[in-house]
User: What shape does this take?
Amino acid sequence: MTAKTAPHQLQLNEKGQLRHFLTTEGLSRELLTEILDTAESFVSVGKQAVKKVPLLRGKTVVNLFFENSTRTRTTFELAAKRLSADVLNINISASSTSKGESLMDMLWNLEYMDSDMFIVRHGDSGAPHFIAEFVCPHVAVINAGDGRHAHPTQAMLDMYTIRRHKGAFENLTVAIVGDVLHSRVARSQIHALNALGAREIRVIAPKTLVPKDIEAMGVKVHYNMAQGLQDVDVISMLRLQKERMESALLPSESEFYRLYGLNMEKLAFAKPDAIVMHPGPINRGVEIESAVADGAQSVILQQVNYGIAVRMAVLSMAMSGQNAEQAAQAEGGE
Amino acid sequence: MMDFSRPAFNQRIRISNGRVIDPRNNLDKTTDLFVADGLIVGIGSAPVGFKPDLEFDAGGMLVIPGAVDLCARVREPGQTQKGNIHSETRAAAAGGITHLCCPPDTKPVIDTRAVAALIQERAYQSGYAHVLPIGALTKGLQGQHLAEMHALKEAGCIGVSQLRQPVKDSQTLLRCLEYASTFDLIVFFQSEDSSLSVKGGVHAGSTASRLGLHGIPDAAETVALSRDLLLVQQAGVRAHFGQLSCARSVELIAAAQREGLQVTADVAVHQLFLTDEMIDGFNSQYHTRPPLRSERDRLGLIEGVKSGVISVLSSDHQPHEAAAKSEPFPSTESGISAFATFLPLSYRLVRDGVLSEVEWVRRIATNPAALTGLDAGHLGTGSNANLCVFDPGKRWKLTEHSMLSQGKNSPFLGQQMQGQVRLTLKDGAISFRN
Assistant: This one.
């Protein structure tokens, strides 16, 4: 099967509006800003007595999670419900792919149930792209995390958090710390930060956790935490999975924590008003000290709250872009 | 395009006005070539009383020995959803190939006389191309016990290979090589350190990092290649290293050749024209193993072909059913259905000034025939007429329809090709004509 389009071209309609949301790569500053502005308008919905707007009324949104996730799935579900959509959650591990049905066959079945949107998390990098390009091009596909490739809604809620606390991006230095190699969050953050015009992006990790030639994405690599955190405005910590010790990427949690764990002492290298982010779930005492995670500079819990508004923005924009695309195609076909 | 259910029966054929190239016999001139009773019976002048049943005007075309492909999957026995000997030898003939070597990873593996015999029997029945099995180096390709290499040789295997399957340890590999050497069997290596490789992976570089795909570093090939070369030297076995992917591998082979080691190497033609950057968009048609590598590697491989360190070009033909490529990239199967593009793509090296026509013919026919000991890859009078007429100027578009292989998996689909096979003769019979 021949893929013809890079993901960033695939996710826009003829008018340049979002119709899938697969990656932050290749999206313009204007479009990313529009997502943030739209999210801004949705923040208040959660504070209302009736927490709903009718933008997705009558639409069927399917949460397709091929990997376990509680937090991301829940925030997507809440976002869709606040937009008045009907939401279906499908637990894939208990479903058909374990019976040998191919991904394509399974998705075609769902498409014929008149689904309007798939929110997909999958262990394979490129899976949502594959679905959007070949399997169900008429369904809006939202990437909720694919392999090591992208987690664009997480990155956008991080951008929202940064803008909320720091204002403009132009003068910001951002450090991304930890397991960059396995992190789809880091990759999506890097693309978004570059598009939004951040001054400098650093990644800080031991060589075993830095993807090869990552500099080509427009970042500076630091192996030393003190140097890397020098005068940064934003610190984005990444989750470290226990399996990394077993696969000989790291000697021990304690050595990692000693060198790259964020504690108050290391935080002092950053600017005094630097904020600390983490996509969650956090490992206290592995990548971050409790005093930092719960401290004054931490915005970790705000991130969760902004996550719903940002996802509402992405869902409503993609649905409207996909509808416009289908209408244009129907017109062209007549 | 004419379609034959069976190759046309032996005819007397006059191929006129073609540029006849046969490096082995130092022949390169525009002349006529005559075929009768399955043999080449004359070049330049016809034998007395020769009356052709068929005249083929090859004006402006190249008349060359049929290509000898050192690595091509025919998928039979065991994977006929991807292809079979009939479909794939027919596609080979359409690609100008008269001899192809079939790696042992069939199901069952080519580690018994029976499987080797079955493949040759089926190829004989189909009649489109000679299929030469390569036997397994170890039983079941499991890397534990020696395969019955002498029996495999007797059953027609032209060499043995472990492909990319790991061997238990260096001791076992050394013994395998020594045993193969006992019977002067050539060992075909596809050097790969399995601990540095990963299924579904791509070249470890900026594209892999950006797309979040698993990276396979150069070292996956060069570490294994270095060890293999040292063990080959130790065992004194003839060895051929297939489908190189790294510039550094070319240097390692060159160094071994300078030291006088009897080693040869090939590269799959697509590796000379594609790089890892093309995977952008998660296009599974670019999923190959070894992976497509960097531009620097690509240029290093081309340099190796030019200098002769890489003396053979192979197709690494791997047909797949559509479903094998219809998954998210990391879950797809690797490989390209390559017969249709083998000659046009490799001929691009001539147009690009990398190879002369004669050197091109050496790399697709003369050299692979010589290193496998086949009486092929030349146009000697009195020898079996295995040849191909190639029109180097003809432009055409690669479509699924134009691919005779059962596998339509090619990253070149939809692209313009220059150079087209017009006629292929296998033992004097027309196995393809366009």
About this structure: Chain A is about 40% helix and 15% strand. The mean pLDDT of chain A is 91.
